[in-house]
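Batch manifest, entry 17 of 40.
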Amino acid sequence: MHPFEHSPATPVLRGNRNDWIQNMNGLYLDVVQNRSVLEIASNTGDISQEILRYSPRSLTMIDPDPKSTRIKNIELIDDDVVSWLPNSPKFDVVVCFGLFYHLHNGLHLVEMIVNHCRPEYLVIDCVVAPHPLAFNKEKINHAGNRWVNNGWKHAPFNLNIPFHIFNESLCYMGYDCVKTHKLCYDFFEKSNHWVGQWRVR
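Output type: structure tokens
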């Protein structure tokens, strides 16, 4: 096993897209019940709908993609999360699926979430990092990719962060990993991923 990978004993979740949604609901999203929730990169709103099934105290969605799904009576913030977070209120839970593998500065985003939102729980997914680590071209402001605000000069690359770097960084910031799974679903977006849930000490 390469040190960037999960333990071989890490459970693996498989199936189709509906299985992924149901597994995230059943295994990871129950912590949102009666809590304030920020969902970063809400996109189609599928996970947002699952969050709402647990009756959170509030849900705020953020996604600058103009095609992002809106949900009646739920706030959708049309902004780059990196620009928005410095003025963020506190949230009990932050959920972020489908974003970190589009960024070159994922650890900075984790620091911003922890320092500005001060969540009790974090639920994050990312792809399994390649070895050796490599920067890859990222087409900016296209559906399914990273979005930045108009006029923001940006570096057009992404860099996937290995799970153990996420975990060690969050541990250093006062969070313990509650659970993690590897994801091997039969649709590309979640075919070679991991998901984890962390709780503040």
